[in-house]
Amino acid sequence: MSLTTAQCSNAPDTTTTDAGVAGAGVLLAFVITAGITLILSTYIILGDFRTGAPVTPKIISRKLVSSFSDQQIIEGIGIQAVGLAKMRTMVPYHFFVIWLLALLSTATHLGTLLALVQDYKRDWVLRWLRQGFMFINLALNVLCGVFVLKSVVDGIAPTLPIGCVWVDGADRSGDRNNKALSVVGTIVVIAVTVILFIFATWYLHLRRSAKWAKWVRLIGIILLSAMAVGAAVRVMMVASAFGGDKDVSLRGPSESSWSFGQLLTLLVLILPFISALEIFRGEIGVSAEQVEDDRQPLNGNELKPLNDRYDYQDNPFKAGSKKKTTKAFRSPG
């Protein structure tokens, strides 16, 4: 059912709260996950500039980064899908929060890519799986950004559904203060997201690491951290769960109230730490003597030592890829 002019011409005075996308637990889960992942990714990347660094902490850091990134990208795709599915009822305020959380998700999984790029290069399944999730996240992110941009340009009433941006005759009595700045900022963020995706795709499929690769990773993680900090600060400023300066009147249960669903989003953050503790205690048989940082894939297979010549695994379905498969990807037996 599509929205009609009648539905979009009479904006109500208030709208209902939506703790499922803007609740305190949801927001904190995204911010905490992004923060931990980017900090650990920075630690891993800086380790490339140091020699003789302990191996075990790097192993744990890589496992944590991988786990948190997987959670974040799935949650990012999921929350954007929910927002688009509810565009006939969700107001621009909640949709804007979703878009900011999606930016956090983008910064997180791109930071993970920079930190664990060698693992993805050595396993074509992990590489193309990551590529697929990146593309889905980008497509949803750009689409949500277009909705946000359209709502800013048209200045639709803040209590109307976000889907009304495509309806002629919709109430456009929204706040138009700083409209030019908001439009430029939104366009820049969308463009930067697309550029980062293109660069990440190129870097992910780069067969050999050049001498400048370390510096590219370092500069990239700094830029992604700045992007994440900006998105986190902005979402905290506008979210009603933290007393933000939202431009819409809400009714219903407070988005700052806690429920099992809000608590669950934070409880799942404990799982990667449990896995890290198991690794540290040797419960799953990860040995520091067998695994060197950035020299052993995350899938745990016992492979022969890799060198700079054999650090990229081709897709076996690609024509002629079997001829390019090296001993680096065969079992010792």
From TrEMBL:
<feature type="transmembrane region" description="Helical">
    <location>
        <begin position="21"/>
        <end position="46"/>
    </location>
</feature>
<dbReference type="InterPro" id="IPR053018">
    <property type="entry name" value="Elsinochrome_Biosynth-Asso"/>
</dbReference>
<protein>
    <submittedName>
        <fullName>Uncharacterized protein</fullName>
    </submittedName>
</protein>
<feature type="transmembrane region" description="Helical">
    <location>
        <begin position="128"/>
        <end position="149"/>
    </location>
</feature>
<feature type="region of interest" description="Disordered">
    <location>
        <begin position="291"/>
        <end position="333"/>
    </location>
</feature>
<keyword id="KW-0472">Membrane</keyword>
<feature type="transmembrane region" description="Helical">
    <location>
        <begin position="216"/>
        <end position="239"/>
    </location>
</feature>
<keyword id="KW-0812">Transmembrane</keyword>
<feature type="transmembrane region" description="Helical">
    <location>
        <begin position="259"/>
        <end position="280"/>
    </location>
</feature>
<feature type="transmembrane region" description="Helical">
    <location>
        <begin position="180"/>
        <end position="204"/>
    </location>
</feature>
<feature type="transmembrane region" description="Helical">
    <location>
        <begin position="93"/>
        <end position="116"/>
    </location>
</feature>
<keyword id="KW-1133">Transmembrane helix</keyword>
